[in-house]
Amino acid sequence: MTDEVLKRISSPERPTRGGQPRAVDLSNVHKSFGSVEAVRGVDLAIHSGEIMAFLGPNGAGKTSTIDIILGLSQPTVGDVEVFGMTPRQAVTKGLVAAVMQTGGLLKDLTVRETALYTAELFPISRPVDEVLKRAGIESIADRLVGKCSGGEQQRLRFAMALIPDPELLLLDEPTQGMDVAGRRDFWKAIRADADLGRTIVFATHYLEEADAYADRIVLISHGRIVADGTSAEVKGLASGRTIRATLPDADETALRAIPGVDNVEVRGDTVLVHSRDSDLVARRLLNETNAHDLEITARGLEDAFIALTGDAADEPSEERRAGK
């Protein structure tokens, strides 16, 4: 972190980790819209330099929480600090920027003109050509925004967010509408930028993105955090394993009757058995059926997501916090 940035965020008695200021502090944050409580007592500390994925089903409270961090919305109850300041102060200093799903673009301007106008909003900004290159859109700088694809427009939003050289970058469904190649290239650019020490917080419904790119995953459901940890830690909260085997003419009813079996999927000659006791199931399959080519794997992030963000996750336990 440069001396210039440290001056921008200087404040006495700021909580730090390894000499770096804490990027975000949410303490007992609630947000209500009439009778609907979108955020229900969120406590969250995000340290400088982290790459954190914010996951949850639709209506879980992700966007409401991001809006609070950006200063676009005020909490009904609770305290919010961004680099030890109010969110509005941090945004004004250019410490925070965001890449949102939609909006914010004028279709009659070119890509470069859009970036230049954005740069005029900040007292300190990075060179426009530099941010366009980092976002991978320098080759279309003279193209009208209205002629850009959805993925190119999203890259432009990324470039605009980089202009004030923010210390915290929030991405709300940043690859929505991109094809596979576009998503891969976008995340390559994000990773390169994160390697410079920027704090990245992103919300996505592509679980593989969280698994591949996040240092830390926070799951939110019904406005509450139900899991917080590394990808491996969160996956570990979905108890049990999956046994995959080749078993022609499988008797699904008999498989479901095996003790410890949670679920059975039959896909042609292949069976997938989800169980809390994979050893027992494997022995039964090998000794009592014609099953062969067995594979036993830990359950994935999707399994953890489903297990932790359903109705059972409404009241999170300490175990779900993955030691955080």
Number of strands: 14
Which fold name is given in CATH as the topology of the domain at 3-95 and 166-235? Rossmann fold
State which percent range the strand residues make up: 25-35%
Shape descriptor reads globular
The oligomerization state is single chain
Could you state the order of secondary-structure elements as H and E? Answer: HEEEEHEHEHHHEHEHEEHEHEEHEH
Strand order of the largest sheet: 6-7-8-4-9-10
Largest sheet: 6 strands, mixed
Fourth-tier CATH superfamily name of the domain at 3-95 and 166-235: P-loop containing nucleotide triphosphate hydrolases
CATH class designation of the domain at 3-95 and 166-235: Alpha Beta
Helix content: 25-40%
DSSP summary: helix tally: 12
Assign the structural class, choosing from mainly alpha, mainly beta, alpha/beta, alpha+beta, or little secondary structure: alpha/beta
Low-confidence stretches: 1-18, 312-324
